[in-house]
């Protein structure tokens, strides 16, 4: 324990490593002769300690890389890009209302709206996909927008 604690600077980490070392020693073949038990324990302990330090170093590097790609920093201060919780909740509620309103549209009107506004097809492409005229597509989309605006405000 003192060996680990002195090198790691933490009694808690030393206790964890001592437990890991115990498990490794318990898994050894008892029929196998050990010429220098203390040297073997120190070697196994050192290897476990090095493995833990390497793992922690990899974790720090990975976390730093994630922070650099996922966070915005202004003047050395991290800025969260996510909207405040109340705005996120309001957005989810608004999306649920929109989804419900879309489901209530007549089927052809809903399909024209989805193809044009959600899938990004032009009026002509929507007309071809639905087998109707461009003016019919415009009528369906216009009707859908009026209905949705009236329902959602």
Report on the architecture of this protein:
With 153 residues, the chain is mainly α. The chain has helices spanning 2-8, 11-26, 37-70, 85-104, 107-118, 123-130, 134-152; strands at residues 72-74, 77-79. It has a two-stranded antiparallel ribbon. Helix 1 (2-8) packs across helix 2 (11-26). The chain is elongated. The N and C termini lie far apart (68 Å). The model has no long low-confidence stretch (mean pLDDT 90).
The whole-angstrom Rg is: 32 Å
What is the number of beta strands? 2
How would you sum up the global shape?
A: elongated
Structural class computed from helices and strand pairing: mainly alpha
Strand order of the largest sheet: 1-2
Assess the beta-strand content as a share of residues: under 5%
Question: How does the SSE layout of this entry go?
Answer:
Elements: H1 2-8, H2 11-26, H3 37-70, E1 72-74, E2 77-79, H4 85-104, H5 107-118, H6 123-130, H7 134-152
Antiparallel strand pairs: 1-2
Helix pairs in contact: 1-2, 2-3, 4-7, 5-6, 5-7, 6-7
Short description:
With about 150 residues, the chain is mostly helical. The protein is built from seven helices and two strands, in the order H-H-H-E-E-H-H-H-H.
Features:
single chain, 153 residues, mainly alpha, two-stranded antiparallel sheet, 7 helices, 2 strands, elongated
